[in-house]
Amino acid sequence: MISKSVQGIVAVLAIVIIVVGGMLLGVVPALERTSEARVGLSAAQAQNAESATTLDLLQAQRADVETLLDAQTKIRLSVPNLPGVGVFVTELGRSAATQGVGVQSVTVGTPTAATIAPASSTSDGAPGDAPVADGELFSVAIDISISGPYEGVIEVIGALQTGTRLTSLTGFTLSIDGANVSAQLSVLVYVLA
Questions:
Q1: CA quadruple 123, 128, 133, 135: dihedral positive or negative?
Q2: Domain segments of the chain: what residues?
Q3: pLDDT in tens, 53-77
């Protein structure tokens, strides 16, 4: 019987040793890894929250950039890097035609700046279509003669001032002959290189 008691005690001790050994070798390291994983998860969640805040800020800034790019596009349309006088004259002709106004003449000057006057010819010899130096604002003087009904002439003058192209009306004279009005307009269109 003693031997069965000893065998029972040895068996219980073996079970205890196996359970304690299993805890020490398997469960405790697994619990430590779980604890480390929780700490890592908390750190990752904190970093994700910070990244989400940064992302929101960047998206807001991107909206600002897109607004600035839209504004820049509008400015570039109103003050292009080439005078584009031919396009300007074509648009003037269309505007005048819709108002029943005729364009009698258009005289284009050369691009001028406050301190320098660049060359004003291109390979095709069109006046006012030479590119200008970087970073400078140039103006191109254009004299226009139009005639037609009074309301139409006034509409054409308004269209020059409110069109997509930055234009400055620097002078005009009107002469009235019955229902027909003739106008001599001096305008500046601007070029930004």
A1: negative
A2: 1-78, 85-192
A3: 888 888 888 878 788 778 777 776 6
How is residue 28 written in tokens? 């405790």
| Superfamily of domain 85-192, CATH level 4 | Ribosomal protein S6/Translation elongation factor EF1B (3.30.70.60)
Record the pTM: 0.55
Which tens digits make up the pLDDT trace of 101-128?
Answer: 999 999 998 888 734 344 444 444 445 5
Q: How far is 20 from 134, CA to CA, in rounded Å?
A: 82
- Residue 165: what residue type? R
User: Following CA atoms 24, 30, 35, 36 in sequence, which dihedral angle do they give, to the nearest 10 degrees?
Assistant: 110
Closest by Cα among 171, 159, 6 to 88: 159
